[in-house]
Amino acid sequence: MARSYDSAFDHDARQATRLDAIQGRFDPWVMGAAIALAVLGVVMVGSSSIAIAEELHVGPFYFLARHVVFLSIGAVLCALVMRTELRNVEKYDRLMLLGCFVLLLLVFIPGLGHTVNGARRWINLGVSNFQVVELVKLMYIVWLASYLVRFRDEVNATWGAMIKPIVVAIVLMTMLLMQPDFGSVALILGVTAGMLVLGGVHLPRMAAPVVVGLPVLAIIAIAEPYRMRRITSFMDPFADPFNSGYQLANALMAVGRGEFFGVGLGGSIQKLNYLPEAHTDFILAVIAEELGFVGVCLVIGLYALLIGRALWIGLKCVEMRRHFAGYCAFGMALAIGLQSMVSIGMNLGLLPTKGFTLPLISSGGSSVLMTCVAVGLLLRVSYELDRAQRQVARLRGDAPTAEAAPDPAASVTPPAAAPVARAASAARRGTSRLQPRVEPTFGRPA
Questions:
Q1: What is the largest CA-CA distance in the chain?
Q2: pTM of the model
Q3: What are the pLDDT digits (tens) for 201-236?
Q4: Could you tell me the strand order of the sheet in which 129-131 lies?
């Protein structure tokens, strides 16, 4: 009997060792789409920023060099996040939420906060200004993903659990409106609603905050005259092409001039100080002019691949009951997807003009850095998902052998082997944290 116990323990120990030795693989589609967008961004920033750099007398390649530096730093941050276990990220979720409020308060400290065009959205780091909301969005997504894991059943069943993240989002949005930053308010609201729906919130119950919140947002949007001008001018920018419709009118002229194949790389006329912010907010208009309809379709296709793959990874994680990883993937996909959608719509005259950069393509500092971190987190989620899938496949491959030659003596697990057995059982479930449960359904709680 003792020999049977030793044999069972050695078998479980060897199996646990083999499972721990299994490595995952970073998703090649996410990595490929992100690299392609970043490379296209370097080319287009170099093409679109020469005129404005010469006008500012900083050298023709100033903005290109600056963009490459921030992209390089972002690549390092991305690599660090890719090597960080998600469980180490999740355990700091409450500190991240506290950090969101602290960061949004820092911009109001005299000497530290930096104001541009009447907006206090940056803090002065000496070598550069940092837009804190870019980091706040990532930390908020991590906290919300952790919250949905800890209260996933209650979110679907009770008012209190559903209202709590909405209250947190409202506080963050109020602080952003004080800067003011209406675009980030809309983005955080969209990410919150999307993650709650994907996290299994009871949809009829979710309708109540939406019905109350939308009129409030509408009132806020039209309260300031400049916001009202933006909302009305995009409907007919050529009605006032030299004032309220100036930006969009020039963007649409650039898009129209590009036709199907574009005028060629470097051949844009609108970037020659006609189109404002040609290397940041309106870089897609330059892409449309120089690369044409084909270039715009390429950009949209790359974002569709990146966001679609991220959502697929999140779905697979949830199916394996790795809910924190799945919700993080959902959140990053929503954040990148909403920002890119608004930026593309703004350049094409489909949405009001708003200061949103095109992720991984537009020139920028904090936006580039935090988008690289978001991509790194997505890649880490894909790595741990692939590793879990390989571990489950290994366990399923071992199962028929054990069942083919059952050993009655070895069927009793000795006390010393209990931890290994529990680890193997957790691996079969796909996660060591989440227990089997009834998944939330759309409609009444099950």
A1: 91
A2: 0.82
A3: 877 777 777 767 677 767 766 666 666 766 777 777
A4: 113-116, 119-124, 129-131
